[in-house]
Amino acid sequence: MLRRLLLAAPTLFGVAVIVFVLLRVVPGDPIAMLIGPGATEKDIASLRKLYGLDESILAQFLYYLQDLAIGDFGTSISMRQDVMELVLGRLPVTMELCLFAMLIAVTLGGVMAMTGAYWRGRFGESAIDGVAGFILAIPDFLWALLFILFVVVFSLDGLPISGRISHEVAFRGATDFYLIESLIRLRLDVFGSVFLHMILPACALALPLVAIIARVLKTSINEAMTQDYVLLARAKGFSRIRIIGREALRNALLPTVTLTGVQFTFLVGGTVLVEKIFSYPGIGNMAIDAVINRDLPLIQGLVLTFAVLFISINLLVDMSYALLNPRMRHG
């Protein structure tokens, strides 16, 4: 774990170098997109100097590293706010959405896997495999569009298709984790509104992961069902449901935990399109706006944030695997 932590620093440095160079190579001037049509050359030059874009690329990069060392991500060109404050304000929104999507994926994927393992060799297993393949064939952003179309066609007004909370609900939280904080403070009206707004984007993110978890977990359960301790449980007269839920599932979870953690990083990345489609105010939605506006400091801050999330999640997955696997723990 210490070695992983030490490798995180050069990894983040490499990400910072790549994104910095790529943003400077791509055509387009962020100042030209920001300033009005009646601006003079003097106005453009002063703005370029204000954001440090009049320096050479090497000088800009050195200033950028110097600011990163003290935790300064710079100032957003399009929003004119501190990048760190913008990212930290939107990050809880995305994390709440991703955790809810992961809960849906693990629950549905686990149920499908255990049902497929119970019906092994019968039509039920083939049906579940077919459903999983169908779900996996459709990407998350397309699920988002299908959900919106479904709500519009069937006039399901109870399921919001944009935003995070209803305008009629007034709530000022101490944190941006509205779902958790509203439940703790017993603001059930706020909790209900945030929950309803979260259902469709969370389901769109979760469905492809449901299919992956179902397939991997079912395969692991089927492999575990051939082990000696399962044969012993059968000899003792245990029911098939009890054997799957109590004996096989525990050992089948190890590869699934690793896969789920890795897929969670892709889940976070999938929020970029899904949040934009549902107008959900997370860092994914903000990333699209930053690219459209060519907001260099904001893009750099968001990319580094995603990199930190990916590294942290992978580290947590390794730690959880070591805790769940007795052989690694005792070793």
Description:
- By secondary structure, this protein is mostly helical.
- It has two domains: 68 residues, no CATH class; 240 residues, MetI-like fold (Orthogonal Bundle), CATH 1.10.3720.10.
- Helix content is 76%, strand content 0%.
- It is built from 14 helices and no strands.
- The longest helix has 38 residues.
- The radius of gyration is 24 Å and the shape is globular.
- The protein starts with a helix and ends with a helix.
Percent in helix: over 70%
Mean pLDDT: 85
CATH topology of the largest domain: MetI-like fold
Q: How would you classify the helix and strand content by structural class?
A: mainly alpha
> Strand fraction band?
under 5%
Alpha carbon gap, first and last residue: 14 Å
CATH-level-2 architecture of the largest domain: Orthogonal Bundle
CATH superfamily of the largest domain: MetI-like
Number of structural domains: 2
**Quantity of strands, as a count:** 0
